[in-house]
Design a protein that fits this description.
The complex is a heterodimer. Chain A is an alpha/beta fold. Chain A contains five helices and six strands, in the order H-E-E-H-E-H-H-E-H-E-E. Chain A is 44% helix and 16% strand. A six-stranded mixed sheet of chain A has the order 2-6-1-5-3-4. Chain A starts with a helix and ends in a 20-residue tail after the last strand. Helix content of chain B is 21%, strand content 41%. Chain B contains five helices and 17 strands. A 16-stranded antiparallel barrel of chain B has the order 1-3-4-5-6-7-8-9-10-11-12-13-14-15-16-17. The chains are: A alpha/beta, B alpha+beta.
């Protein structure tokens, strides 16, 4: 079997270009998404003036200790239902308590009257986004890749989910 | 970092190209041609293989998917039929189903289940939000949770007809809350309870309507638990929340021989004090105070005098030590019991408590001062308790020591209160998230070297 050298050269360059472009695009893809894939975005209604929350403020809000936004709106916290990995991450990193202690904390807080309402449970990230879209005082969390333009992502300790050293991650540890 | 990663990828690709170049010069033409053809075929074949990989399971699932699609079509048709029937029956219903009504932040609308939305298009809010939310008359605004307990209790105290060993129903507490609006909140505790005569009675132990301006100012009116110390406003009428089987006798309810004005009716202002990480809070209360002429100690509708009881409390919850609360309160009232001069009552209370997830340490001290008007006499009744517990999985052993000493000539408390002090040991076992079984032993010493033992078994629960 005889093969034309031109065909060999053509095949060689063709393969090279394919491999090169595939590798480059994979690398760029990893570059743009790797840091955010694992992070949990804190989302609020787009009409909410808040842009940044310290971790301490975030914790107070989720614990029901801070009940109003700076614009006077009452805060409504949204939690994913038990069984979600995002909920587990928030319990560990923000609440620093387990499911049972979470229930007890809010039962007791509402019983004493110090906590206005327990976080509203929703089944999925889509429902969280819808809820935050429709309730001006709502705050919730979703995995960063699931965020869309219907809500506003709040910086935590001046960092967005895509940035380095962002605190809230799906498998992160409780911040000090 | 990501950028270096991609550089590495590019470098790797370049080195791969270099290696191919070396191969090209070092291998014979036929072999090279074969290799090139192989690579070409590989490149061409890879997407096909991928496509086959992705298609393979879909082929495998083709039949069930087709069945599911058929089922979806059937269900959609059925849904249309139901909607049409509903629209005929209730002309407004179909409209309501497609256009959600405005809702309050306090009680947001149920989020309808739907297919996952795409990330790209941003949905629009379902309704314009305003400060005034119309009340949905089709829904109840009440949230009800219950607390109760069943006890088995026995005591060696002689001369008390209620100290026989007996089963007893504890308080059946219906805790009702309601988000009246974005700013107004309703809260109440309706308690059904059997007295020492075994007859059930109903009490509205708490009933508060609160207007919340912000985190720093909340105004409430109604019947409340006086913010004297910590225990009274931490556990209210639920034994399930309490570690022990009951309250320290310093904080016993009025109808159970308690000495404090546990309940009050009037107005209160609460909120945070801007204090940074110190976490200061304040409570100011103005109410009728406690009655000493009538059989009912809580003045729900009529006050024995026009003087109002005033209570002010301040406490700190430092951010650095979550679970710690340190506070102080001062209560002032004028008591007008029958057949004796009016008595000025002042109650000072201080507390330092730590309630972590596992460890609990409660410490409170009170001083009740009674000063009959027109006399230089002052009667001081001091009291304190300390309670410590530690959770080990579902078990929580605890210890409490309490002390209360009313002077023998005390014009209000004598002779029923006197001196009471002693230790309590107990074990709480949380059988489930909402059911706890407790066993407690008390040794109580009284004035005149008298003492008695009490053993209690309790099942407390919330429902």
């Amino acid at each position: 079997m005889t093969t034309s050298p031109r065909l060999v050269v053509f095949c060689f360059f063709f393969v090279t270009v394919i491999l090169f472009s595939a590798g480059l695009s994979a690398g760029l893809d990893a570059q743009s998404r790797a840091p955010a894939d694992d992070s949990l975005a804190i989302v609020v209604n787009r009409g909410n003036p808040v842009e940044n929350l310290s971790f301490s403020e975030l914790r107070k809000i989720f614990l029901g200790e801070q009940t109003h936004w700076s614009n006077g709106r009452r805060i409504t916290v949204v939690m994913l239902e038990p069984g979600n990995a995002e909920r587990q991450a928030v319990l560990v990193q923000i609440y620093k308590m387990g499911e049972k202690d979470f229930i007890n904390y809010f039962l007791h807080g509402m019983f004493t009257g110090e906590i206005h309402a327990a976080p509203r449970p929703l089944p999925s990230s889509e429902e969280v986004l819808k809820f935050v879209l429709n309730v001006p005082g709502a705050i919730g969390y979703v995995k960063a890749p699931n965020v869309n333009d219907s809500v506003k992502v709040v910086r935590v300790e001046s960092r967005l989910p895509s940035e380095k050293d962002y605190l809230l991650r799906l498998h992160g540890k409780p911040p000090k | 970092m990501c950028i270096p990663k991609s550089k590495v990828r590019v470098e790797m690709n370049c080195s791969a190209v270099g290696e191919l170049g070396k191969l090209r010069t070092g291998v014979r033409g036929r072999t090279l041609a074969g290799l090139a053809v192989f690579l070409f075929l590989a490149v061409i074949a890879t997407p096909l293989l991928r496509a086959q990989q992705t298609d393979a399971p879909s082929n495998a699932k083709k039949e069930p998917e087709e069945a599911l699609l058929k089922r979806v079509v059937q269900l959609e048709a059925r849904l249309k039929e139901v909607e049409a029937a509903l629209a005929k029956a209730q002309p407004g219903a179909a409209v309501a189903a497609t256009a959600p009504a405005p809702h309050s932040a306090a009680d947001p609308p149920p989020v309808a289940a739907s297919a996952p939305q795409e990330a790209a298009p941003a949905p629009q809010p379902q309704a314009e939000q305003t400060g005034q939310e119309p009340m949905d008359l089709n829904r109840t605004l009440l949230h009800i949770r219950g607390y109760s307990d069943v006890d088995l209790r026995g005591s060696t105290l002689k001369g008390d007809p209620t100290s026989t060993t007996a089963f007893g129903l504890g308080q059946v507490n219906l805790f009702v809350t309601s988000d009246v609006s974005d700013k107004f909140k309703f809260l109440s505790e309706v308690v059904f309870e059997a007295g020492s005569d075994n007859v059930f009675g109903v009490d509205i132990e708490r009933m508060l309507l609160t207007y919340s301006f912000n985190d720093y100012l909340n105004v409430s009116v109604g019947r409340y638990h006086t913010a004297i110390g910590y225990y009274n406003t931490a556990y209210h009428h639920s034994t399930w929340f309490q570690t022990a089987t009951g309250r320290p006798f310093l904080f016993a309810f009025e109808d159970q021989g308690g000495i404090l004005p546990i309940h009050n009716l009037g107005a209160s202002i609460t909120g945070k004090v801007p204090s940074g990480s110190l976490g200061l809070h304040y409570v100011a209360e103005l109410g009728n105070g406690r009655a000493y002429r009538a059989s009912e100690p809580v003045q729900n509708a009529v006050d024995e005098n026009t003087h109002k009881a005033l209570n002010f409390a301040v406490f700190a919850r430092p951010e650095r030590i979550r679970g710690l609360q340190v506070g102080f309160s001062a209560y002032r009232d004028l008591l007008t019991p029958a057949a004796v001069p009016a008595i000025d009552e002042t109650i000072f209370a201080a507390h330092a408590v730590y309630t972590g997830l596992d460890f609990e340490w409660l410490n409170e001290a009170l001083l009740i001062r009674h000063s009959p008007q027109g006399t230089p006499q002052v009667f001081n009744t001091p009291g304190f308790y300390s309670q410590i517990s530690r959770r080990y999985r579902s078990y929580r052993p605890y210890f409490r020591y309490q002390y209360l000493n009313a002077p023998a000539s005390e014009p209000i408390f004598s002779p029923s209160v006197g001196l009471r002090h002693g230790p309590s040991f107990g074990l709480r076992y949380d059988m489930s998230e909402f059911v706890a079984v407790k066993m407690q032993y008390d040794y109580t010493m009284l004035r005149g070297d008298r003492a008695f033992h009490t053993l209690a078994l309790q099942t407390g629960f919330t429902f």
